Predict the structure.
Amino acid sequence: MIIDIAADPAAGITSAVEALGRGAVIAVPTETVYGLAADATNEAAVAQIFEIKRRPSFNPLICHCSDLEMVSAFATLDPVSLRLAERFWPGPMTLVLNSKPGRLPPVTTAGLTTVAIRIPMGFSNGLIRAYGRPLAAPSANISGRVSATTAAHVESEFGDGVPLIFDGGPTKIGVESTILRVCENGIELLRPGGLPIELVEHAAGLQVSAPNLFKVLAPGMLTSHYAPRAMVRLNATRVGPGETLLKFGDAIVPGEGACARVFNLSPEGGLEEFAAKLYATLKEADDAGAESIAIVPIPDEGLGLAINDRLRRAAAPRTLTLGELEQAAVRSKEAR
Ligand code: AMP
Ligand code: MG
């Protein structure tokens, strides 16, 4: 069931708190993408998230808190992390912090001694505050697929598998959070996202490095993620007759007059608008039966870093995701 929270936000929070309290998994809007949320301290509830999403159990979840006081109950903040937290929370930034032992079940953190934490904005922040405990909330999509940025997308992904979907309209940022880890030599970027690293460097007075991020982008090593059903072709400088084109700005792309369909995500050429509309557009193209999606080059700066990261994964060779492999193993065991 989709519940419109704009009509009565307080009633939305009351019913969400009730559902979380009985260990349910619910879908909630955040400023980045929609999340599949459960009480991060409830082992059984968190285990259900992994099952619903078909997410491999070794991939830990982000714990969403309402404020720094709640964060401090679960993790320790070093001085640089604290500076970033004060500057960018609530907002689209996740910090990997040393966790306080015994506060979260191993299912949430995949048994690590660190925990990924974020303070989100808007409805989800008010909800966590009212609930009084952190929420584990990965993106509301089957593992490996395009993240949901609308309540309708969540519903089409899970059907009755997620009985309560709180609808706060399309998400503002449209890509997942930027994940950072402060280490001895500076700040490490674990995932580019909704907070541009230029802003992080400016606020911290430190360089952000990405030692492990682009290694996996070597051909053949990249696993498919954020992937629509259609094939994805990047850095397109022309578009073929049967293709669907995703572009921004007002330049004409050669071939666009004769291609299957053109989506201009931002006629003004803004990367923020492109990011905000990206996942919904990929879904719309998929639903319309697109076979191949050509995407114009996106500059690697600001939100472009996150957009290019997602697009490279969307264009990666398709193999079964680990979640799908696990499901297939369960099915074949059941069949025996
Ligand atoms: P999602 O919630 O699906 O957007 O993804 C959360 C991301 O955070 C995944 O890529 C995780 O691997 C990453 N993550 C969560 N916890 C940790 C941690 N303790 N250390 C490093 N990465 C983490
Ligand atoms: Mg995700």
In short: The mean pLDDT is 92. The longest helix spans residues 271-287.
